[in-house]
Design a protein that fits this description.
By secondary structure, the chain is of the alpha/beta class. It is about 40% helix and about 15% strand. Strands 4-3-1-2-5 form a five-stranded parallel β-sheet. Helix 3 links the parallel strand 1 and strand 2. The protein is globular. It starts with a helix and ends with a strand. InterPro entries: Rhodanese-like_dom (IPR001763), Rhodanese-like_dom_sf (IPR036873). This is Rhodanese-like domain-containing protein. Pfam families: Rhodanese (PF00581). It comes from Micromonospora vulcania.
Length: about 130
């Protein structure tokens, strides 16, 4: 494999079963965690996703590892389905691959990120975001 970010992204995505925005909605209805890693500024611009938990990318692994002392209560097991979203679906792919390496085998991301969510006409919410520091 050649070096560079494109190769890293290709490698990360090879191990993911990525979801469309519509399949993401279905996965969340079925109990998947929807994790939003966008910045505050991106969320202000694009809106918040219904049911999403906001976790900063810098602490993502600690919050989602069921064995971590710093996990969120919803991180109940390594078989929990987790769908990550970012603005366009790039950093979320890398983050999902990192979670799989950690043992969260059902971690994946949403194709196209929140840009694709909005393009599909899916809703945002006016409720305060569920931000987990």
């Amino acid at each position: 494999m050649s070096p560079g970010i494109d190769a890293l992204l290709e490698q990360a995505r090879a191990g993911l079963h990525r979801l469309t925005p519509q399949l993401t909605v279905e996965a969340v209805r079925g109990g998947a965690l929807l994790i939003d890693t966008r910045t505050d500024a991106q969320r202000r611009e694009q809106g918040d996703l219904p049911g999403a938990i906001v976790i900063d990318r810098t602490v993502l692994e600690w919050r989602l590892d069921p064995a971590s002392a710093w996990r969120i209560p919803e991180a109940t097991g390594y078989d929990r389905e987790i769908v990550l979203v970012c603005r366009q679906g790039y950093s979320s792919s890398l983050a999902a691959a990192s979670l799989q390496t950690l043992g969260l085998r059902r971690a994946t991301d949403m194709i196209g990120g929140v840009d694709a969510w909005l393009a599909a006409g899916l809703p945002t919410t006016d409720r305060p975001a569920d931000v987990r520091p």
